[in-house]
Amino acid sequence: MSGRVLVGVKRVIDYAVKIRVKPDNTGVVTDGVKHSMNPFCEIAVEEAVKLKEKKLIKEVVAVSCGPQQSQETIRTALAMGADRGIHVDVSGKDYENLGPLQVSKILAALAKQEDAQLILLGKQAIDDDCNQTGQMTAALLDWPQGTFASEVSLEGDKINLVREIDGGLEHIKINTPAVITADLRLNTPRYATLPNIMKAKKKKIVTVKPADLGVDVTSRLEVLKVEEPPQRQAGMKVETVEDLVVKLKEAGRV
Amino acid sequence: MAAVGALSRIARLGSRICKNRVTLSGNSQKRGIAACIDPSHGLTDEQKEFQKVAFDFAANEMAPHMAEWDQKEIFPVETMRKAAQLGFGGIYVQPDVGGSGLSRLDTSIIFEALSTGCVSTTAYISIHNMCAWMIDSYGNKEQREKFCPDLCSMEKFASYCLTEPGSGSDAASLLTSAQRKGDHYVLNGSKAFISGGGDTDVYVVMCRTGGKGPKGISCLVVEKGTPGLSFGKKEKKVGWNSQPTRAVIFEDCAVPVANRLGEEGQGFNFAMKGLNGGRINIASCSLGAAHASVQLARDHLLVRKQFGETLSNNQFLQFKLAEMATKLVASRLLIREAAQALQEDRPDAVAICSMAKLFATDECFNICNQALQMHGGYGYLKDYAVQQFVRDIRVHQILEGTNEVMRMIISRNLLSES
């Protein structure tokens, strides 16, 4: 086994920013808006670095798909302890239409090229909330998947995983190579230290194009319209339960 | 919806008047989001990384405790040690003795960001950094190896002792005497207003080994526990309450000659060089407070309604906010330029550091004060952070050289003949 882990990191609008819809309703405003690494991707990077520190894996490779600015996100991963980075250059219209299907094709190709033992991703991105990339990547590679992981431990060539599901916690054991997606409680990402940020400057980021990996990034989806959620309407107070039922029936809710 | 999404929703709710100050909303407001005042403009990718770590640390480790540290007068040793683990204990100290080896500009960016979490604690960290730097720059091999690693990791804390009851602005007239007796100096005298005094381990002391004036002053490193070293009562202050301030008293205190930095008579020189950086650091702390206050004021204006509309529709307040933002960015640019000048050892470095300290501390205090005003009655309550920013940065116009002394330095530069 190569002992190599691929970690996907996505550059998204910072979680604290107030999102505004573009006036032409084609998307949200991203120009000049603060971006940072998707919080679940941070958790994935932290888990990968922890595995390397425990000497269970040998190399952590951070991957990001997007325009030039995605390299900033890769640098953050390097500052947290990843060894090297791969920037898959996707820009312009291709980037606007980039979705989980295309990214998972890219990750699958990279996993084969880099002979990865494990792919660690965040469970979802906070901009599109798709929660699909991990699952699709596993399907394309025909690898087992451990999604919504809140605990990961390697045992020989198998992985013990605790998943957070609606019913509670599920304990599973999967073979490697595998895809794992990180949930909130998997770990608390470390702060990059100043020395590590400086060391990160010397770590390599290689840029490739999707075509180099034999991936077609044409989207199968077309975004028709993006709009704000409806304004919250005022509520209404009622005197009795009977009134409540009448009002609910009037509004067509029951 | 992801828990993180829920977190972001809460964060966007801002400072609702009727709710208690939720930590998460407080954190989001200090994250530097409003575009024109974004402190990451013009920085290199690496500097943005440093800034990000400092902002995250401030939001997660400092801001939630800032009010408690102020009210209970807690010196947050554990939090500062966590900061030191990230490299914040000796930011511009050389790496061979445990420092981070960064530039003055990197340092300013870091303190500006940390200050949004707690001004008082960040100001102390900056004083600690200055002491570590002084020993790193002017100490010999033994002194550097003895003191710097522990200071950089904050295993030990440092205090800077220049001011005395009788000599503040007129620092060169200090009276604490150090009489040479064989392989020791015997110190007699007292220092006033020493940040960290009594709780710190290493004291960098300016004392008189020679005649009158600056040329008679030397710099000695005194360790806590040395017989003859004692402390006055803890002062009760308007702000800077997360660091204790005490008088430091020397009564026949014997300090080894081996603890002298450089030669006799060089102390004042070291002190002045140290203050150039110290001024940039203190100004950077004011900057962080002003930045946080502008964010708080902005968020408040968008939420508070009077006369049927939000305060943000009031032209006077719009204009006031614009002025605050403009002065904030102007202060920031001057500080960063001064940091560059100091780093490059430019001829104008001393003057521009003084200009930056003068301008930024005055303007940023006004910004914070105005932000308090915009909060109305709520601004006066200790439940709201803005009053702590005002109280904490008020002293920045006084220490590290009063703003009056800054004017002296600048006018001397303008009017001197050469």
TrEMBL record, chain A:
Chief location category: mitochondrion
Signal peptide range: none
Record-linked Gene3D superfamilies: HUPs
InterPro entries xref list: ETF_a/b_N (IPR014730), ETF_b (IPR012255), ETF_beta_N (IPR033948), Rossmann-like_a/b/a_fold (IPR014729)
Gene Ontology molecular function: any one: electron transfer activity
Keywords: Electron transport, Mitochondrion, Transport
Domain annotation Electron transfer flavoprotein alpha/beta-subunit N-terminal: ranges: 25-217
Protein name: Electron transfer flavoprotein subunit beta
Domain of life: Eukaryota
CDD domains: ETF_beta
Function text: The electron transfer flavoprotein serves as a specific electron acceptor for several dehydrogenases, including five acyl-CoA dehydrogenases, glutaryl-CoA and sarcosine dehydrogenase. It transfers the electrons to the main mitochondrial respiratory chain via ETF-ubiquinone oxidoreductase (ETF dehydrogenase). Heterodimeric electron transfer flavoprotein that accepts electrons from several mitochondrial dehydrogenases, including acyl-CoA dehydrogenases, glutaryl-CoA and sarcosine dehydrogenase. It transfers the electrons to the main mitochondrial respiratory chain via ETF-ubiquinone oxidoreductase. Required for normal mitochondrial fatty acid oxidation and normal amino acid metabolism. ETFB binds an AMP molecule that probably has a purely structural role.
Single Gene Ontology BP annotation: fatty acid beta-oxidation using acyl-CoA dehydrogenase
Species name: Pundamilia nyererei
Xref: Pfam families: ETF
From TrEMBL, chain B:
EC number, as in UniProt: 1.3.8.5
Domain (Acyl-CoA oxidase/dehydrogenase middle): residue spans on this chain: 160-253
PANTHER family: ISOBUTYRYL-COA DEHYDROGENASE, ISOBUTYRYL-COA DEHYDROGENASE, MITOCHONDRIAL
InterPro entries in UniProt: Acyl-CoA_DH_CS, Acyl-CoA_Oxase/DH_mid-dom, Acyl-CoA_Oxase/DH_mid-dom_sf, AcylCo_DH-like_C, AcylCo_DH/oxidase_C, AcylCoA_DH/ox_N, AcylCoA_DH/ox_N_sf, AcylCoA_DH/oxidase_NM_dom_sf
Keywords: Branched-chain amino acid catabolism, FAD, Flavoprotein, Oxidoreductase, Transit peptide
Catalyzed reactions per annotation: (2S)-2-methylbutanoyl-CoA + oxidized [electron-transfer flavoprotein] + H(+) = (2E)-2-methylbut-2-enoyl-CoA + reduced [electron-transfer flavoprotein]; 2-methylpropanoyl-CoA + oxidized [electron-transfer flavoprotein] + H(+) = 2-methylpropenoyl-CoA + reduced [electron-transfer flavoprotein]; propanoyl-CoA + oxidized [electron-transfer flavoprotein] + H(+) = acryloyl-CoA + reduced [electron-transfer flavoprotein]
Gene Ontology molecular function: flavin adenine dinucleotide binding; short-chain 2-methyl fatty acyl-CoA dehydrogenase activity
Domain Acyl-CoA dehydrogenase/oxidase N-terminal: 44-155
Species name: Haplochromis burtoni (Burton's mouthbrooder)
Source taxon at top rank: Eukaryota
Function noted in UniProt: Isobutyryl-CoA dehydrogenase which catalyzes the conversion of 2-methylpropanoyl-CoA to (2E)-2-methylpropenoyl-CoA in the valine catabolic pathway. To a lesser extent, also able to catalyze the oxidation of (2S)-2-methylbutanoyl-CoA.
Listed GO CC annotations: mitochondrion
Pathway: Amino-acid degradation; L-valine degradation
GO biological process assignments: branched-chain amino acid catabolic process; lipid metabolic process
Cofactor(s) essential for the protein: FAD
Active-site residues, Swiss-Prot/TrEMBL: E400 (proton acceptor)
Protein name in UniProt: Isobutyryl-CoA dehydrogenase, mitochondrial
CDD domains: IBD
Family: Belongs to the acyl-CoA dehydrogenase family.
Ranges annotated as spanning the membrane: none
